[in-house]
């Protein structure tokens, strides 16, 4: 069994830089539907699983359905969700909607939600200090 797996979008990619001990199934710009299509065959069994998805979802993505499909596959002692801080205006989905889905799923499974507290100028991604903070909280 792997010790740590990080899955998700560009925020997951950035987190991997500060958690090089983790396997990473992540890609910048990917939404939850695309993640399921591309990575769903990978094992999500590890001591720790870190999930960062939702920032790239848009009005045609069934975010709750796609995230729940992922979470059902996860087998871990500890699961962390990185709470999306922002998304592109073109997504036509209020970020609060995505945040509510993430928070609800995490509560349902007894997982930990980590907000991004140090945000870059794009109001989506963490700063370097923000990535470091997220990585430290997942150890």
Walkthrough of the structure:
- The protein has 139 residues and is an alpha/beta fold.
- Helices cover 38% and strands 23% of the residues.
- The protein has helices at 10-18, 32-39, 63-73, 95-109, 128-137, and strands at 2-8, 23-26, 45-52, 75-83, 112-115.
- Strands 2-1-3-4-5 form a five-stranded parallel β-sheet, with helices on both faces.
- The radius of gyration is 13 Å and the shape is globular.
- The relative contact order is 0.18.
- The model has no long low-confidence stretch (mean pLDDT 97).
Structural class label: alpha/beta
> What's the helix-strand series?
EHEHEHEHEH
| Gross morphology | globular
CA-CA gap between termini: 17 Å
Quote the average pLDDT: 97
Helix content: 25-40%
Poorly predicted tracts of residues: none
In short:
With 139 residues, the protein is an alpha/beta fold.
Give me some keywords for this one.
five-stranded parallel β-sheet; 139 residues; alpha/beta
Topology:
Layout: E1 2-8, H1 10-18, E2 23-26, H2 32-39, E3 45-52, H3 63-73, E4 75-83, H4 95-109, E5 112-115, H5 128-137
Parallel strand pairs: 1-2, 1-3, 3-4, 4-5
